[in-house]
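Q: Hi! First time asking for a complex rather than a single chain. Here are the components, and I think there are two in total. Is that enough to go on?
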Amino acid sequence: MRHSHVERVLAEKREQHPELRTRPSWSAIERVLQREGITLRRCPIPGHFGLLLQYRGRWTIALNTLAPVARNLYVVLHELAHLWLHHSPAAQWEPLFTMGYDVGHDAREDDADTFASMVLNPECWS
Amino acid sequence: MGLKRPEDRALYARWVKAIAPFTDGEVAERMGMSERGIAKLRAEEPTRLENRTRKLMRQLLGEPDPATMVRERPAIPYAATKSQPVLPESVRIWIQEFLLRLTKAGATEDEVDEARLLLTRSDVLSYASRMHDEPLGEKERLQLVKAIAAAAIIPTLRKAGRKVDASFAR
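A: Yes, that's all I need. Here is the structure of the assembled complex.
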């Protein structure tokens, strides 16, 4: 059920961003971010590979400079998935800040992982 | 016949006593009422007090008007008002100093409020790719808050023309 939702959103996004139709390069992802108006920043972020932040209506994906660079593509796609799958424009803040460390499992994390996996390994999902 | 409400009777009695040393004209001037109205009120206790008259009497007596008084809410234990874990003191101090810097740099109230919201709720960021599930220590949490300020808040405000010093978030 959730996979079908992820697949549907990915199909829509592939129409907007042809870069996502095959495994994207880093420069291709940068083009997607630019088109979406999302800023990418790099800084040390303890305990996190990346963050998706909204301030004054602008979205930023922050990548941890202390984390392995090889994960960056996956992290960006994971955060993009949260924005495209879970963010409700009507509830500006709520969807961003509902989980704490004590919440062991959140299906939205699975969605975001599935989305990133579908983009990076399309052959596994066809 | 007199006033029906006990509180009005008591108010009227205090008022009559308070104005006793003064002429009708002096009281009228002080209360913003007509001299004739004061004379009539003083001569005989009315059957009811107009809201305005009641208010003017209270003002003259220096008493607060219950209609405009703000009732304090019953105290709620601080912990019960917070749905999120309390931030460490060093993090709270840094956030307050940062918000003060934003204000001094010309940030609007909305910009400062939104920055506060983003920073104080950074403990429960859900859309974050976590490297491990253990809660961060105090030093790491401070670093996380600084990272959020450096990544999202400072660049946005600088783009909007606010002269925010980026070095504070390093």
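A: The first strand of chain B starts at residue 128 and ends at 130. Let me know if you'd like any chain examined more closely.
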